[in-house]
Each structure stands twice: as structure tokens, then as C-alpha cells.
Amino acid sequence: MPRQKTEVAERWAEIEKYATIKHLKKQLTRKARRQRLSDATWRTYRYWLGKFIPFTQKNPDQLIEDALKDNEETENLLIDFKNFCIDQGLDENVAINGTHGAVRGFYRHNNINTQNWKTPFHTERKVGQIDDSNPLFLRNGSKKKLILNRDLLREFQSKLNYRDQMIMDCLISTGLDDGDLLKLNVDFVRNQREPRLFLNGSRSKTLVPIRVFFSLTASKKLRDYVSKERSKAIDGDPLFVINNAERKKEFRKRYGRAYQIEDLDKLPNDTRLSPNSLAINFRSATLSMGIYIPERQQSPLRPKRLRKVFESACTHAGIDRDLRDLFMGHTGNQSKTYQGKSREELEFYYEMVEPKITIQVDEESDEIDRLHEELKKAQEVKSDRIDKLEIKSDRIDELEKRLDKIDLEEATLHKLGISEKKLINAIKEKVQDDELDKLMTETEKLRKQYNKIAFDID
After folding, report:
1. Looking at the structure, do residues 346 and 245 belong to the same domain, yes or no?
2. How would you classify residue 256: left for phi > 0, otherwise alpha for psi between -120 and 50, otherwise beta?
3. Same domain, 202 and 328
4. pLDDT digits (tens, 9 = 90+) for 117-132
5. Which domain holds residue 41?
């Protein structure tokens, strides 16, 4: 381990021995939703207190004693520390969040009244300006609608590796937090048979219910990834693990030197990909697109922002807010009506959103066009058959009327006592033989035509 990190770890080990730090940890655990302190929360406190305590040149217990004596002076101490962080090059908003978040929390959880401490106003976020220059949705002038900026997202996706391309599809198609997505295991994919993968669980941080689908594209890619890249993994293994390049970086962090071939046995194996590593990869891909990102500023194509694509798509699709919160696991007034709906019902609503979040639409559009063309041809064939049947029906009606007339005339003749033979002889006397033959031929043809049409219809 590098010397600097060793010193930081040793310093924090000493800090954790103080009663006020132990009390802080107990309070955070007690007030947590699951009464379990998350690693991410404790890392935040360690980071900021690890800076603040050396800055004050006092130990934690002394800081609390001073705050009990002079509350206002302690608030001034936070202001000085915030300004110190900014002078050291830290973003002003980050410094405000740290000092009036974790550091202030240290005092509050040790029974110091901080209600009257003023929190500075945040400055305009530069990351917002960068985001505006790289919009994820564009206005479609002809239809006056917002559509996904597919050109931007396709270019970005082309700069990612195979694994991260799938993660990008998953973030956009589900709205999952990257931390929740990366906590999935291999069995999540292997144990499902429906075309769309379905997550029915809860957020790891808040325990808020979440029920959402993965798009057809993302589901297919995930199944291919598991069959090719994670075929040897058991069901409980992480779904997304670090690649060889990332394993070597982890080796350098752990041992403080570059990886050598003889260190193969020391390389971390099947280590779960972390949100921080994913963010670094996304940032590198964004920079390779030629997008300028100021130092210490977030990338406009960061995982957290891509998650918002799904949220916007739900709004554009007219999805109810309560249902959207259930899809994304938002803390809010999730309707019990939606929580009680079946998978099939939820999938019906999800299908309304899916077209608006599909990045690679070429193949799917071709398939849709092909199906539409087949349907159009089938409808034309059906229409032709209907037209022919209608023509046949008209001809049958005409023939039936003519035959009915013949039957009526025959019946009339029988009533008059005139036999068919006498009728023919009478007709012969009035017409020539060739005319009579023509008349008989037409009559026979008419009967055959009627019988054929009636047979076809039956």
C-alpha cells in the first residue's frame, strides 16, 4: 500500500478510538432505514472528518467540548474549513455539501444544536452548463415532440467496451441507480425465461420497492454476455466484474507498484465492478468524443444522468407519476394500486416507454417495417378475396332470380297443362333450329356457372 494511504489509514484508526466518533457511528446506524450503516455513508464521514480534524489540530472529543462552550465559534470554524477547501481547489458546492453535511452531522449526532447554523447558498452548477451543451433529448421540429438524442448516445456507446455498453443500455432502459444495477448477480439473468428481464426488489439504500423491466435489447445483450463472458460463474457471483486492465489498476492500488507477469496469482479475481470505476470509464469515453470536461467537474454522460433518461421518457409517454416512482424506486407516495399490479399489467405500461428509450433503433425499425409490410400484404390479399366473394355473391343473387323466374314459368305452364315436350315443339315452330340450339346452350352454361359458384362458396 502506498505510504500516503498508509498514513491516512493509521491516522483514521487513531481517530476512531475517540468516544465521540464511536457515538457518531452508533447514531448513524440507529437512524439508518435498515439500522445498518452503509459503507458509502461511512466513507463520506471518514473523508470529510479525515480532513476537518487535522485542520482544527484538535481531537474529536475536544471539538465537541468546544462546541458546548461556544456554539457560534464552532459555526465559524466550519466556515473557515469550507473556505480552506475552496482555496485548495475544491469545487465550492462540493465544499458546502461536505462541511454542512458530514462535518455538521458529526456535531449534530453528538447532541450539538446546529439548527441556527446558516448553510451557504450553492452557486450555479457548472455541470448544469455542460449538460445543457450535450442534451439527451432534442426537439423534433416537424412533430413538435422531444426525441432521444440517439446520435450522441450511439457515438458515446461506440467508445465503451463491451461490458460497459450493456451497462449503459441497462441504465437507460430501467432508470436503475448504478449502485443497484452493479449489485445484481448472475442468477438474475439465468433464472428468467421471459423475453424482458424483470427486477422485483427494493433499493439497497432506501429499501423502497422497485419493479422494472429491462428492454428487449438490454435483456438480449445481458443473456449473451452471461453465456459468453460469465459462463463459468456460479449463480451467486457478481454479474458485472472488472476486466483485466481494471484488475491491474486494483493491483497497483493495493501493492503500490505496477503489475508484473509473476504477480498473476495476486490479481483480484471476479471482483465486482464499482460505481466509481464505471464513472471513470464513462468519463474517459466522453473525453474521447472530444467533449471538454473541466477539471473536477462531472461528465455530461455520467451514469447518474443516464438514469434520468428513463425518468424523462416516462413523462413523455404519459406514465403516471406513482407508476414511474415504482419503476425507478423513488422515495415518494408510491400508489398501492400499482404495487399490487401483476407483471403482465406493468409490462403493458413499460411497453409504452420502451420505444422512447431505445438507442439502436435501426434493426428494430427494419423488423417493424418488415412486419408492417407483411401485414399490409395480408390485408391486401384479404381485401381481394372479399371483393371476389362480393362479386360472386352478386352473380349468385342474379342467377337465383333468373332461375326463380324459370321455375315460376315452368310451374305456370304445368298448371296450364302444357308439357315440356309440347313447349319445345311450340318454340320450334316459332324459332329457327340454330336459334333454339343457341338458347339451350346458354341455359346449360348458366346452370353450370351457378353450380360452380355455389360450390366455391360452400
Report:
1. yes
2. left
3. yes
4. 998 887 766 556 788 8
5. 3-108
